[in-house]
Design brief:
Strand content: 15-25%
Number of helices: 7
Shape: elongated
Largest sheet: 7 strands, mixed
Low-confidence stretches: none
Radius of gyration: 20 Å
Order of helices and strands: HHHEHEHEEHEHEE
Bound molecules: S-adenosylmethionine
């Protein structure tokens, strides 16, 4: 009887392990299907992250210039925002739009700590950008696109707010469970009239830049 109970417990433990493993596999294979939980925001500021996402190098690729009006879509806790604010300078601005209020709260704190005054965080949805047509010179998304369920609509919104010739930059990382393949991103953007400007690699990922029609 005792042996049977031990066997049952063991079987339950194996089943629980397999269940967790399978759920994780599916999540990693098919994505979270929504925003990264704000409780994991600290992972985005990990001290080793500059190795896979060298901030200055990437913002140079995004072609941010002094005086630019920039949209950072899905800034999370602001890994890129401080440096982006510095690059556009006092004549420019970075609008940071995130769907999660907790992310925006963390970002506000970080901006305050760094004395960044030209970044403007707001809560909002990529599917309905609270910005006027042709109002931004550049927009960038780093590991965000895969979290948005209706990607064509989000990209159409980005096209609407970018001025003609404005630069859209999309970065993806293999570390992200919502990783988007380069060809899918390129096909979606081209279908909306964006022209490919260039493509570059980062360790474990890539950035694609497009010019808005
Ligand atoms: C994986 S995090 C990346 C954060 C930041 N870009 C970085 O690289 O550190 C994705 C962010 O996109 C935001 N996000 C997801 N879906 C969104 C949507 N529909 N509209 C705006 N932001 C969204 C999430 O809340 C989260 O802060």
């Amino acid at each position: 009887m005792r042996a049977l109970r031990v066997l049952l417990v063991l079987l339950l433990a194996v089943w629980a392990f397999l269940f967790v493993y399978v759920v994780r596999w599916f999540r990693e294979r098919f994505g979270r299907g929504g925003p990264m939980p704000a409780s994991q925001a600290a992972e985005l500021l990990h001290p080793l992250r500059p190795w896979i996402h060298p901030v200055q190098q990437m913002l140079d690729k995004f072609r941010l210039k002094p005086g630019n009006a920039v949209l950072e879509l899905g800034p999370g806790p602001g890994y890129f925002t401080i440096e982006a604010g510095r690059m556009v300078g006092s004549e420019g601005k970075v609008v940071c739009l995130d769907i999660q209020r907790e992310m925006i709260s963390g970002l506000l704190k970080r901006l305050d700590e760094h004395g960044t005054t030209n970044a403007h965080p707001m809560v909002g949805d990529a599917l309905n950008l609270p910005l006027a047509d042709d109002s931004v010179d550049a927009a960038y998304l780093v590991t965000v696109l895969g979290e948005i369920p209706d990607r064509p609509r989000a990209l159409a919104e980005l096209r609407r707010v970018l001025r003609p010739g404005g630069v859209l930059s999309i970065s993806e990382s293999l570390m992200d469970p919502d990783y988007q393949l380069r060809d899918s991103v390129s096909d979606l953007c081209r279908a909306l009239g964006f022209d490919v400007l260039d493509h570059s690699r980062q360790p474990l990922g890539y950035t694609m830049c497009f010019a808005a029609p």
